[in-house]
């Protein structure tokens, strides 16, 4: 019986138990996935308790993706460069940390818009937090240039300097990015701006979009952010945030079980859960 779960705070409406119980069903593995909400002030003690439990692996979400690192026995290279872990694999009592957010994002785009992966030349990432870094690192194997815009310039500069030179573009202020938006084949919104209950907010105005461009938002509550709605009205193709959540979960599941699952089969039901 696989013992899986999620640590974070708050975890109220997490879809992860539903996703992973579907993956368990698909692979005919027996197991359970539990929500383990931890108050930030109790983190070290709760982690010690967790070490004593017979877990096979767990996910880590806000606000512990960085805090978990000192408690690991080892860490995957990418997660280490990122400074954020969203998946822990437990083997012989040892904890190893990974981050599946960026690859989950990339795979979710490949599933819906494969042409973008092969043809996009200029990419704009809005934001420079952990999610932006994970996505940028996963994109850095493709043949494209990544520009970054962020409210705080120093964080964007740090992200750019951590990227391989071949893909490293330039920093733009949010205003500059709004004016240059129609130069990009692929625009990726990674900030929390537009998340419910502040769904009326938008990180940058969408005035013009390039023909055939893909606009993507990692926010999935609401499913369609104002940013994506405006991009769609201007003719962009859009990619929704729940797809990243779905595919990063599939990658975590594969790390724990070595089993491949079919995330696409869950998309419609996931959408009705998020809309309901
Ligand atoms: P995560 O790890 O989930 O990406 P994070 O590290 O807190 O979270 O990063 C959040 C991102 O959203 C950052 O790019 C942040 O901009 P700053 O670097 O300037 O803080 C951006 N962000 C959050 N709230 C914002 C707001 N109201 N306006 C503009 N950007 C915002």
TrEMBL record:
A Pfam family assignment: Shikimate_DH
Assigned keywords, A-Z: Amino-acid biosynthesis, Aromatic amino acid biosynthesis, NADP, Oxidoreductase
Reaction(s) this enzyme catalyzes, per UniProt: shikimate + NADP(+) = 3-dehydroshikimate + NADPH + H(+)
Any one Gene Ontology molecular-function term assigned to this protein's record: shikimate 3-dehydrogenase (NADP+) activity
Record-given protein name: Shikimate dehydrogenase (NADP(+))
List of residues binding shikimate: 14-16, 61, 86, 101, 220, 248
Family matches, as NCBIfam families: aroE
Active site feature: 65
SUPFAM superfamilies per the UniProt record, alphabetical: Aminoacid dehydrogenase-like, N-terminal domain, NAD(P)-binding Rossmann-fold domains
Keyword Amino-acid biosynthesis listed: yes
Entry's EC annotation: 1.1.1.25
Pathway(s) it belongs to: Metabolic intermediate biosynthesis; chorismate biosynthesis; chorismate from D-erythrose 4-phosphate and phosphoenolpyruvate: step 4/7
InterPro entries named among the record's database cross-references: Aminoacid_DH-like_N_sf (IPR046346), NAD(P)-bd_dom_sf (IPR036291), Shikimate_DH (IPR011342), Shikimate_DH-bd_N (IPR013708), Shikimate_DH_fam (IPR022893), Shikm_DH/Glu-tRNA_Rdtase (IPR006151)
Annotated Gene Ontology cellular component terms: cytosol
Similarity annotation: Belongs to the shikimate dehydrogenase family.
